[in-house]
Write a structure and sequence with these properties.
30% of the residues lie in helices and 23% in strands. By secondary structure, the chain is of the alpha/beta class. The two termini are 33 Å apart. Bound molecules: zinc ion (ZN).
C-alpha cells in the first residue's frame, strides 16, 4: 500500500533489468525438480544486530525474479512463505500458530456481471443506471445471485454513527431491508469546518469501507455511496476500475462483520438526476448532512436489482513466528508486515515481474531483523513477541483481517501492533513519519525514543486520503488493539526536505506498484531503515519489559472496542505509568 512519502533516489535507469543470476539465491539455475522453494535458502552470514547487510540480503532474495513478484497462490508466493518460515526457524523463533508456522487464509474471489443495472422506480417513472458509466455494484456475500425488489431508498447523509462525537446519521430510522444512499468522507471535510470531525483530515467515518459496514450492521439491503472526487480523494475512473473485475474478500463465515447483500457507488451526475426525479435537491441535502442534527430523508424511490456474480474460492497463508516471553508469555507485542505483492503480469511487454522490493520486501526484512535482534539479545523479553508476515494485503488487507478474526494471542492480551509497509532506502532522515498521528499512547513512547535520537515525529503529508485506514494494522485498530504505522521520514540528513520529496515523487512516479520496484545495490541506502527498525524495536522492548497497556487517545473511534475488552480503570493507571516512562 502507500503511495506517498516514500522514496528512492537516482534510480532512473534501473527498471527492467532482469535479475536473478547476480542474486545470492541458491537454486535458481540448479533447481531441477525443486522449483522456487529452494529459494528458501540464502547464503549470508546474518548478524545478531539489525544490520544493513542483512536487510539487503533479505530484500534481494524476496524481490528476486525467482520469487516472481510474490503473488498469493503462485509458486513465487509459496517460495516466499517458505523463505520466511526458514528464516524464522534459523533465527530460533517457535512456530506461532500452535505447532504450525502457517495460518491458512481462505478467500473468495467474486466477479460481478457488468451487464448488471440498477433499476429505480422514482417519481412515477423509472431510471436505469448502467454498470461502469453511472454506477458500480457488487456483493461480498459469496452468493452467485442477489435479487432485490422494490427496496425503499433513504438518504442517510454521511452514513455515520459516531457515539464519541454525538453524531448519528441514522437517528430515528429503521433501514432494515432498505437501500441507503450516502455521501463519501465526513461532515468536516465538505464543510471545511475544522471543529467538525477532524476538518479536512479524513476520519475513520469518512472511509467507504466503514459506511458499508455500518449499513450492514443496520440490516440494509443495499448501500450506495455518491462519488465526488475531492471527498473520495480520487476520480470516478479509480472507482470504476477498482470495482470492475474480480473482488476479493474472506468468506462471509470467517468475518465477524455482517455483509450487505449489495453495495456500490453512484456517479455524482447519476445521483443528482435520481434525487431530482424523486423531487429532492441533492445539493441542499448535502448542506443539511453537514450540520449537527441532520435527520435521514426517505426518498420517493425504490431499487430493484438482479446481481449475478461468479465466485472462486482460494487459499493463501500467513506465516507466524513466536518468541515466548520470560515472565508474561500470555501477553504479546506484534510486529507485522505483508509478504504479498502483485506477481507477474503475463502478456505485458518488457519486464513484467512486479518485484515489490520496497513494497514490501523491506517490511518483511524489517520484522526478520527485529526478530533476530530480540532472539539474540542477552535477556529475553518479559512478554512474548509475535512476528506476523501476512498475505493478501494487496487484495484488501485479507491476511491481517483473517488473523484478527482468528488471533493466536487473544486480542485482549495483545498489547500493541507495529506495522511495517514499504520502508524507504534513501538514507537517514531527521524525522520519522507516523501515519494517522494523534491516535494512541504508542506515540508517546515513540516520541521519547525520537527525543533521545534528536529526531522529530511527523504526520503523513496528505491527511485527507485516510492512509491509516489502508494498511494491515487497521484491522487490529478496528478491533481495538493500539496500532502504530510508522513510515520513513521525509527530511533526509543528506539533502533535507527537497531531497526527501524528490525521492518520494520518483518512487510514486516510477516504481510504486510497477515492475521497477526493484532492489538496486548501487543506489539503495539502508542506514535510515536500520535506524527506524532500531527505533521500533526499542519501543517494543520497552513495552515487553515495562508491563504497560498503552491506550487509544481520548476521542479515538477505536477506544470503545479496547475499553470493552480491557476495563478503562486499568487503562488509566497505565496512562500514568507511560507518562512517567
Ligand atoms: Zn504494501
Amino acid at each position: 500500500m502507500r503511495s506517498t512519502g516514500l522514496a528512492l533516489a537516482l534510480l532512473a535507469l534501473c527498471a527492467c533489468t532482469p535479475r536473478g543470476d547476480d542474486s545470492p539465491a541458491t537454486g535458481t539455475e540448479d533447481a531441477a525438480g525443486q522449483g522456487p522453494a529452494s529459494a528458501a535458502q540464502v547464503e549470508h552470514a546474518f548478524d545478531a544486530a539489525i544490520d544493513a547487510g542483512d536487510i539487503a540480503a533479505h530484500v534481494q532474495q524476496l524481490s528476486s525474479d525467482a520469487f516472481a513478484g510474490r503473488a498469493p497462490g503462485t509458486p513465487g508466493g509459496e517460495a516466499t512463505v517458505d523463505y520466511i518460515k526458514a528464516q524464522f526457524a534459523r533465527i530460533g523463533l517457535q512456530p506461532g500458530n500452535g505447532g504450525d508456522w502457517f495460518q491458512a487464509v481462505p478467500m473468495v474471489e467474486t466477479t460481478a456481471s457488468e451487464a448488471t443495472t440498477l433499476r429505480f422506480a422514482v417519481g412515477g417513472g423509472e431510471q436505469v443506471l448502467a454498470f461502469g458509466d453511472d454506477m458500480v455494484v457488487g456483493t461480498r456475500t459469496g452468493q452467485a445471485s442477489i435479487a432485490i425488489k422494490d427496496s425503499p431508498l433513504v438518504f442517510v447523509g454521511y452514513g455515520v454513527d459516531a457515539p464519541e462525537r454525538q453524531w448519528n446519521d441514522y437517528d430515528g430510522i429503521d433501514v432494515k431491508g432498505k437501500t441507503v444512499v450516502m455521501l463519501v468522507n465526513d461532515p468536516g471535510f465538505h464543510t471545511h469546518d475544522a471543529k467538525l470531525f477532524d476538518g479536512e483530515r479524513m476520519t475513520y467515518y469518512g472511509r467507504w469501507t466503514y459506511k458499508f459496514e455500518e449499513a450492514a450492521r443496520r440490516g440494509a439491503a443495499a448501500a450506495l455511496i455518491v462519488h465526488d472526487t475531492a471527498g473520495a480523494s480520487y476520480g470516478w475512473d479509480v472507482v470504476k476500475n477498482s470495482w470492475s473485475g474480480p473482488q476479493y474478500d474472506l468468506p462471509a463465515g470467517d468475518d465477524p462483520e455482517p455483509r450487505l447483500p449489495a453495495q456500490g457507488w453512484l456517479t455524482g451526475e447519476a445521483a443528482d438526476a435520481l434525487f431530482k426525479a424523486a423531487g429532492q435537491d441533492l445539493a441542499k441535502l448535502r448542506a443539511a448532512a453537514g450540520k449537527r442534527g441532520f435527520k435521514p430523508v426517505p426518498l420517493d424511490a425504490s431499487l430493484s436489482l438482479d446481481l449475478r456474480s461468479t465466485t472462486v474460492e482460494k487459499n493463501s497463508r500467513n506465516v507466524i513466528g513466536l518468541l515466548p516471553g520470560s515472565e508474561s508469555p500470555d501477553e504479546a507485542i506484534v510486529y507485522m508486515a505483508h509478504w504479498d505483492h502483485l506477481g507477474t503480469h503475463e502478456g505485458e511487454a518488457g519486464d513484467n515481474i512486479y518485484n515489490g522490493a520496497v513494497d514490501n520486501a523491506t517490511g518483511v526484512a524489517g520484522i526478520l531483523e527485529i526478530a533476530e535482534a530480540f532472539r539474540k539479545a542477552e535477556t529475553p523479553p518479559k512478554r512474548s513477541i509475535l512476528f506476523l508476515a501476512v498475505t493478501l494485503e494487496e487484495s484488501g488487507l485479507l491476511g491481517s483481517k483473517y488473523y484478527v478474526a482468528h488471533p493466536v494471542v487473544p486480542l485482549d492480551k495483545t498489547v500493541a501492533v507495529f506495522n511495517l509497509d514499504a520502508l524507504s532506502p534513501t538514507g537517514k532522515a531527521r524525522d520519522l513519519t507516523v501515519t494517522g498521528k494523534g491516535s494512541s499512547q504508542l506515540e508517546d513512547l515513540l516520541r521519547t525514543e525520537l527525543d533521545r535520537q534528536g529526531r522529530k515525529m511527523v504526520g503523513e503529508g496528505n491527511t485527507a486520503a485516510g492512509y491509516y485506514f489502508r494498511s494491515d494494522h487497521f484491522n487490529f485498530a478496528k478491533a481495538g488493539v493500539p496500532a502504530l504505522y510508522i513510515d520513513s521520514g521525509t527530511t533526509l540528513v543528506d539533502g533535507g526536505k527537497a531531497a526527501g520529496e524528490a525521492a518520494a515523487k520518483d518512487y510514486t512516479d516510477n516504481r510504486y506498484h510497477k515492475p521497477g520496484d526493484e532492489y538496486d545495490a548501487a543506489t539503495w541506502k539502508l542506514d535510515g531503515i536500520v535506524q527506524d527498525l532500531q527505533t521500533v524495536e526499542s519501543i517494543g522492548r520497552t513495552l515487553a519489559d515495562g508491563g504497560q497497556w498503552p491506550d487509544w487517545y481520548e476521542g479515538n473511534p477505536f477506544k470503545a472496542a479496547r475499553d470493552a475488552m480491557r476495563p478503562p480503570v486499568a487503562a488509566a493507571a497505565d496512562a500514568k505509568k507511560i507518562a512517567g516512562n
